[in-house]
Amino acid sequence: MATDTPSVLIVEDEPDLANLYAAWLGDTCDLETAYDGEAALDAIDETVDIVLLDRRMPGLSGDTILTTIRDRGLDCRVAMVTAVEPDFDIIEMGFDDYLVKPVSKDELQRIVDQLTLRASYDEQLQEFFALASKKALLDAQKTDAELKSSQEYARLRDRLAVLRVQVNDTMEELLKQNGYRQLCQDITRDSILQESD
């Protein structure tokens, strides 16, 4: 998600509801709307950042669309926005978040903001670890004099420093959102417990 304006596909078989969601998000997103599963599959490609997906639709269900998105290897975030109460079947499903209807404008905007932020964090982490592994390889293979004289190495170190700050800033922003704060606390606690076992 290189831009600040995410590309969002709303998949909802009730046109009035889909249009309401589009009106709520129109100022902050590039929007496309699909009123059935077939139209959704035609619209989904690598340019879509976020899919807001209804589970229960005539024809192709949201579950089938979700499976197809993941089978195609598309790197978009998917939030189920549905009247279907979550059950244990969601454990195996490849969505990123789940909202139970009715949803408010604030909830919908929040979920889009969170998914945009999470995608940004994932991209930052991927780049950070790729560059960190290159730096580690060069550190092991080159002498200090060679490292100090290399402009490419200096740029690599500078980029890593910038990325470290960006990753930390993005994580701080995620932690401000209560659900993620609890999740991160749980992960940290679980890690500490596993290390002590």
TrEMBL record:
Coiled coil: none annotated. Keywords: Phosphoprotein. SMART domains: REC. InterPro entries: Bact_response_regulator, CheY-like_superfamily, HalX_domain, Sig_transdc_resp-reg_receiver. GO terms for biological process: phosphorelay signal transduction system. Gene3D superfamilies: 3.40.50.2300. The modification 4-aspartylphosphate is found at D54. Residues 7-116 form the Response regulatory domain. PANTHER family: RESPONSE REGULATORY DOMAIN-CONTAINING PROTEIN, STRESS RESPONSE REGULATOR PROTEIN 1. This is HalX domain-containing protein.
